[in-house]
Structures are given as C-alpha cells and as structure tokens.
C-alpha cells in the first residue's frame, strides 16, 4: 500500500491555518520537515512533531515571521543561516530537541528557548547572544554547557540550571574594570544543578540586585 508522506500534503490541510498563524502540532502522519508556509505567516507553532533538521531554505521566503515554536521535535541540525535573516523574529523556541550547537540568531529576538537539548560549550559561541540587544529571556537549562556565554544588557531572566558549569567570575555578569557598573534588569538567574560554588568569589554578583539561585556551600 502507498504511504502518505506529510510533505506531500498542502500545509493547510494537515495544519490549522488562521490569518497569519499556522498550527501544526502533533501532526499525523509524522511531520519530519518544516512545512511549506503560506505567504505572510507571522506565527508558526510546530510543536511535538518529528522534524529532524532545519535548512537555510526553510524560512528564507517568510520574512514576516515573528514567532517560531519548534518545541519537542528531534532536531539535531540547523544550518547556520536558517533564522539569521528573519529580522522581525521575536520569539524562538527550540526546546526539547537534540541540538549540540546553535545557529546564528536574528537581532530582534526577545525570547530564546533552548532548554533540554544537548548543547555543548563549543556549540554556543561566547558571543552567540552579544548582539541581541532586545533579548529579555534566555533559557538554556538542561544542557551540557561548561561556561556562561556573554549575557547581553537587557536580559531579565536567565535559566542555566542543570548544566555542567563549574566556574563564574566577576566578568560573567559584572565588570572587573568598572565597580560602578550595575545590572538591575537581571532579576532571575538559575544556576542550580551545576557544580559551581557561588560563594567562591564575593565580587561576582555585586552589580546585581538579586543573587542567583544555586549552590553556595560545597
Ligand atoms: C563536566 O565538566 C567536567 C570538566 O569541568 C568534565 O570533566 C566532565 O566530563 C563533564 N561532565 C559531563 C557530564 O559532561
Ligand atoms: C572595560 O572593559 C571592556 C572590555 O572588556 C571595555 O569595553 C570597557 O570600555 C571597559 N570599561 C572601562 C570603564 O574601562
């Protein structure tokens, strides 16, 4: 018997398309690639499918995207330019996938979620988030990171719990060359479930209003 592949069917028969939004959640038959999107799609919800890979062409023609949610797929590879041209993209979730490294991220992101992946330090460049001046929520919990990347100025919520971070320093959040520097926006930092002992260097958190959650005694 012939099997029906999801990629053979027009997206809006498999998924629910409403003005500007496409909902493709737990699609049956299994959806293994990003579906072709209607022009001017702004919101794509493609959670809990079997998407394996994101290519540079998948979103190349849909520059109207503001939110992409790919939570709970089996994505292990993303081509470096897959999201970089999406200049309106504000929210991107890649949570609960199999990523070991991150692609380039577009400049207007406010929320980025890559919780529950397999991210390694060498797959998340120290400056991966540096240019994201609007970034407010950064979720990187439950990965295999051994270092804290550069955290841009406007971040409010930072989740790094359940990684393998063994060290933080004055320059992780504050500035060793500027004792007047303050970072009042950053009010939620999760570092619990990491080997780092946060009381090691008392100057590490002097620019913050709130101490990170984590281990203070060995
Ligand atoms: C955690 O990091 C240490 C080095 O700091 C390394 O030796 C160890 O293998 C890492 N553990 C895991 C589970 O990756
Ligand atoms: C502190 O060092 C950073 C680079 O590490 C530099 O951009 C900044 O201008 C320096 N600030 C002061 C007050 O020297």
UniProtKB/TrEMBL annotation:
PANTHER family: EPIPHYCAN-RELATED (PTHR46269), MIMECAN (PTHR46269:SF1). Residues 1-24 form the signal peptide. It is found in: Secreted, Extracellular space, Extracellular matrix. One of its GO terms (cellular component) is extracellular matrix. Gene3D superfamilies: Ribonuclease Inhibitor. Its main location: secreted. Induces bone formation in conjunction with TGF-beta-1 or TGF-beta-2. It comes from the Eukaryota. Keywords: Disulfide bond, Extracellular matrix, Glycoprotein, Growth factor, Leucine-rich repeat, Proteoglycan, Repeat, Secreted, Signal. This is Mimecan. The keyword Signal applies.
